[in-house]
Amino acid sequence: RSSYSCCYFVLPCCFFDFHGKYSRRQSKKTQYREYLDFVAQVGFVCGFHVEEDCLRIPSTKRVSFIGKSRTYPPAEHALIDNQITQFINSRRTCAVATCDRRAGFKHKDHCDSLCEEVGSEPPEDETGTAGTVWMPGFQPREKVEQVRNCASLPRDFVDEVVLNVANLLLNAAPQKSCSDMRGGNMNTWNQGESLSLREVAEHLNKETLKKLKSEYGGLQTLLKNNHQVFEVLNGRVHIRDWREEKPPSKTKPEVKRRLSAEAFKTRLCWFFIHHPDGCSLPSEACPYAHGTEELR
């Protein structure tokens, strides 16, 4: 509806209608095929010659639709716009039988007695707001989607939260330590205590929590993003002990082995810098750099 000259491409995936989940109406078809027919039908209603294609992608949902040309002249734009409005309202107010996708959709043939005939004048300005012109209350997604996975938080803020949580876990059990026997020598390394996410949150100040709540996943996402330091299992936060990490598989494909080798020692080791006992691994075994001179 944005303009007569527009084209479209759509790769249907999840089964949704205009106002919620798509309701099946034909048991003789698979759910996927029935939904594909519905999406194609929408294209026909909007006045497009709908073409179907199968993409070469590793997915079970790979059938796409392309609309490159119109089925009507520009002079009939107002008529088609009215037909589109009726179709959208019919999906909301009545159960419309799925039509033959080659025949398109005729509103009066199916639910003239059931659906409220709601017409709309064609938009004077085709670049007008969709929410006011095409469908009351509709809010399109912002052109620039805000990243809310803690990745855009300031680095200083993230580092401060990581250090605070790590100190909290270390101080929760000051006498507790893990023992590691190497060459007959007893080496102790404090792994700290495990706390629930709720217990950790209770020890953070209000400003920090407020900032984290504006992100999807909040505290848990931030801690999982910093997997070098933390391990979050079943809602509990642990300090990661790299001695317990499984060594890379020798059967790993050559490409993956090469990529993991290239990522070796490209970042500083958090434990070497901040942990009171240093890193639990010797420099040659740690995947992170013990000092700037080891950075690659």
UniProtKB/TrEMBL annotation:
Top-level lineage group: Eukaryota
Keywords per UniProt: Cytoplasm, Metal-binding, Methyltransferase, S-adenosyl-L-methionine, Transferase, tRNA processing, Zinc, Zinc-finger
Catalytic activity: uridine(44) in tRNA(Ser) + S-adenosyl-L-methionine = 2'-O-methyluridine(44) in tRNA(Ser) + S-adenosyl-L-homocysteine + H(+)
GO biological process terms, semicolon-separated: tRNA methylation
GO cellular component, one term: cytoplasm
Positions of C3H1-type zinc fingers: 263-293
Record-annotated C3H1-type domain positions: 263-293
EC number: 2.1.1.211
GO molecular function terms listed in the Swiss-Prot or TrEMBL record: tRNA(Ser) (uridine(44)-2'-O-)-methyltransferase activity; zinc ion binding
Localization terms from the record: Cytoplasm
Class in the EC hierarchy, top level: transferase
Family note: Belongs to the TRM44 family.
Purpose of the protein: Adenosyl-L-methionine (AdoMet)-dependent tRNA (uracil-O(2)-)-methyltransferase.
Official protein name in the record: tRNA (uracil-O(2)-)-methyltransferase
Taxonomic lineage from the root: Eukaryota, Metazoa, Chordata, Craniata, Vertebrata
Gene, per the UniProt record: Trmt44
